[in-house]
Design goal:
single chain; 336 residues; mainly alpha; Fumarate Reductase Cytochrome B subunit; three-stranded antiparallel β-sheet; 6 strands; elongated; disordered C terminus
């Protein structure tokens, strides 16, 4: 009852400034002071999905649209598609990773830890990676909250907490997009030269990257073929997300209603696909492979890890002073 009264008040207030168009296709601009609508007619329009257009005195004329039935129908149809495909992508990749873990277990360093470390990524590379990765993770979580929050998070945390969470989530999503773009550009600059296709990639793929069988170590340079796929997915997917995201942030630049709908659809679909790929990447870069995380943690990896996974890269950097292998524990030694 209370909700109904509040709603009725809102409708009455709107009736003072809002005019009705008879046909959904065209919104008429009627001077509301000369020809105001009756409350009943407005209620009927709201329920019947007619286009309701008002009058605004700010330069953004598009903001006068109150209800656009075409938009609502589009959101219902495509929102459902994005939701379904996102669920398939995320659940699908989790099932694949669990199956992979059950079959293969954690990928170990076959020769064991050597106790010697070698520099893998500079401070610049690690900063670029974590700027891109940290912002992407928050963007993905806040984006997923938009798609699934109402059905998955709201019932658990309640309306108040969900309202606060979603409001801050939206702010974070809007602003962290810029941090992601910066991290993306820095990573592109740092790694493009190492991610161009190479003839060793074919051999790496033929041997399944050595991921499927213990003791198999196909040669690879700084990045293997699997990592190149991750790199290009992140770069191209990230660029698509950035472009469509900016268009959605500044709809005036994007064009009209059909353009926003198109950008929204692409944004949702690319986000779903890239999130699934990134989940697989996070698994291999952390718990899935012994010694991998150090590359992005301290920047130094065990020499045996480097020889098993990136043998050609080790040969290439051998002899360069900054890549001189050193005792892994040397940093932890107390000063004499
Ligand atoms: C907690 C999350 C993450 C962890 C633990 C992680 C870990 C790693 C590690 C260890 C590497 C270096 C692999 C090597 O030495 O060869 C790496 C590289 C990379 N990461 Fe991440 N990462 C994470 C999140 C992300 C996210 C969210 C993105 C993209 C949005 C990303 C994109 C990349 C790219 C493009 C590379 C270089 C190519 C490759 O190694 O696949 N990472 N990451």
């Amino acid at each position: 009852m209370k909700a109904f009264t509040t709603w009725l008040f809102a409708v009455v207030a709107l009736a003072m400034v809002v005019t009705l168009s008879p046909a959904p296709a065209e919104a008429q601009q009627i001077n509301p002071t000369a020809e105001s609508v009756t409350e009943d007619a407005l209620l009927e329009a709201l329920q019947g999905g007619q286009m309701v257009d008002g009058r605004v005195s700010i330069p953004d004329e598009l903001s006068s649209g109150l209800i656009k039935p075409g938009n609502k129908g589009w959101a219902d149809r495509h929102g459902g598609l994005v939701r379904t495909l996102t669920a398939i992508a995320i659940v699908g990749i989790l099932v694949v990773l669990v199956a992979f873990y059950v079959m293969r277990g954690k990928i170990r360093i076959d020769a064991g830890m050597s106790g010697m470390s070698i520099l893998r990524f500079s401070a610049f590379e690690r900063f670029a990676h974590w700027l891109m990765a940290g912002s992407f993770i928050v963007l993905a979580l806040t984006g997923l909250n938009l798609v699934f929050g109402r059905s998955l998070v709201l019932p658990i945390v309640g309306e108040d907490a969900f309202g606060t969470l979603s409001t801050w989530g939206k702010v974070a999503h809007n602003y962290l997009g810029w941090a992601f773009m910066l991290g993306l550009i820095m990573s592109f600059v740092a790694w493009i030269a190492h991610n161009l296709p190479d003839k060793v990639d074919g051999e790496w793929i033929r041997q399944g990257g050595g991921l499927l069988k213990k003791g198999v170590h196909p040669p690879a340079k700084k990045f293997n073929a699997g990592q190149k796929v991750i790199f290009w997915s992140v770069m191209l997917g990230g660029a698509a997300l950035s472009f469509t995201g900016v268009m959605l942030l500044f709809p005036d630049w994007a064009g009209g209603q059909s353009d926003w709908q198109f950008y929204q659809l692409i944004h949702g679909l690319v986000a779903a696909g890239l999130t699934a790929i990134v989940v697989a990447h996070i698994y291999i870069g952390s718990v899935g492979m012994e010694g991998a995380f150090d590359a992005m943690g301290s920047g130094e990896v065990d020499l045996n890890w480097a020889r098993e996974h990136h043998s050609l890269w080790v040969e290439e950097v051998e002899g360069k002073p900054e890549y001189e292998p050193h005792a892994a524990s040397s940093k932890a030694q107390p000063a004499e």
